[in-house]
């Protein structure tokens, strides 16, 4: 029986995204997710784990991360320290081995979901160093010679913000999905998930306003989905009426984070009023 | 979806689709193709065309840059429009004004789900042949509204969408919409892409405060210390590259001002350079470069040359499009009040001699580069198009 991901109550996935997840599950390949910030790349792994009832293991990649860190870290400094002060039995290397997110998922008794978040933050060679482990789903702890083979192959979800190009060899092994910015229809259902109680007319007007804002030609940082959701929350809490959204943009700080963008909005405001 | 589910050995499925994708310029590898076939063999797509499209894309395409090409090739293979070409102009114009779709009963919707892709494709081609005029509403002809599986704005859930934008329920064949046109590398440049390309510009080296434990040296020192622990530190790795950005502003560059400002934003964000300096000029560099785009606050070019070491990477941005005398004549600068005893070309050559690595990015398309001043500057400084691909080439040359 194949597992099937269809999105959850609070995570709405397009058919393409559902299919990408299901292909990755069925073929046991890593799933690479790219997309604009705020399109729910990281949340996807949480949603998949929640729907399939699997344990989620996360590994947030940093610019200094090495591929091995996700499997295990050998704390040599602690061991040296212990050898000096004789606190513990330094002959037992295993107590200085700490497993990372990927390593723990391999060792787990049930198939989990591993989130390797923002893989592009690390060094350019980082993804290539993971190829073998992702292919074979096994790794060796060099310090102890222990060989660990995954009992159940986890679903590996890898997110990238597109800051670095990923190596071809790595890409070939992944199932890929690019989360496009949601179209207004989908956006309306996403907003509904987060603010079920907010009036439909307010949501519609706010979404129309939001897409208009995103379409401004000289915006430095276009507002994202999460910012829209915060903004609608603020509008609803503040009891703002419809006309106000049409006339001006209240709680603008929730949407635009750059001073130049606020200035360019001022230049364009009259046009929006004209359009309505 | 007979073809997709056909099983058994013999011919790999859709092999001609694979070659079509390669022909269209998509870098689909054999590994990826086998993954795709494996997914089909597992019966993952059942009878849903939209899911078939999604599965093919997820396994075969590994960059949103290629989504548009894939959509076109997919439309070509399964619908029959040529890749690289838009849908027939007449057809597109015809469909440009959709009318409101009628509501269908659930029974009717269910009935229409039945159509397979091959069947759809065959019927689509047949109808296009039969049909000779615009058609709205009804349930057979290609047009807008209506319940025929072809066209757009309609209600057929398994339909093939032809141009236009999505209306009621999502049609299976969304490829023709080319939603991913904007992600093509040869068309669009945004701050992120520019920044991304610039980030490749790096040369790592260690300097600064020792903040990282050097394990090898620690072991070495500790061993020399007869086992008494002595931890050694070393400086972390940094980008050692220094970058100078010189930008043309005003006049013929005005249409590109927005593009250049985006490049500037991207470059400015790229704070990982050891040093980053940006100066402006108008049309050509003479004895001064300017700190602001209004060209009010300046610095002597000779001081710049004295101050910046030859290994500083120089990125020029300009259209190199001007009157020839601005380059070749003494006193030839475009501003009347600007008096230059040396020609612009001499200044460019002087800069070109001083710096070891430089690249000129030109927002004008390459096919217009026969213009005399563009050609002249191109002889002095290596010129690249200001597109993502051009920028990547430039970055390679600068590294």
Q: What does this protein look like?
A:
The complex is a heterodimer of chains A (276) and B (399). By secondary structure, chain A is of the alpha/beta class. Chain A has two domains: 165 residues, Rossmann fold, CATH 3.40.50; 92 residues. The longest helix of chain A is centred in the last third of the chain and has 17 residues. Chain A is elongated, with a radius of gyration of 23 Å. Chain A starts with 14 loop residues before the first helix and ends with a helix. A five-stranded parallel β-sheet of chain B has the order 9-8-12-13-14, with helices on one face. In chain B, strands 1-2-3 form a three-stranded parallel β-sheet. A two-stranded antiparallel ribbon of chain B has the order 4-7. In chain B, helix 9 runs parallel beside helix 16. Chain B is built from 16 helices and 14 strands. Chain B has three domains: 181 residues, no CATH class; 28 residues, no CATH class; 159 residues, 3-Layer(aba) Sandwich (Rossmann fold), CATH 3.40.50. In chain B, a hairpin with a 7-residue loop joins strand 10 and strand 11. Chain B is of the alpha/beta class and 399 residues long.
Describe the structure using short key phrases.
heterodimer; A: 276 residues; alpha/beta; Rossmann fold; 2 domains; two-stranded antiparallel ribbon; 9 strands; 44% helix; B: 399 residues; 3 domains; five-stranded parallel beta sheet; three-stranded parallel beta sheet; 16 helices; 38% helix; flat; disordered N terminus
